Amino acid sequence: MKTIIKIVFVAIITLTFMSCKSEAKKNVEDKTETTVKKTTSATNAPNFDSAELQEYVEAYDKYMASYAKAVESKDMSKMGDLATEGQKLATMSQKVMTNLKGNDVKKFTDYMTEKSKEMQALVQKMTAQ
Question: Is residue 33 part of a domain?
Answer without folding.
Answer: no
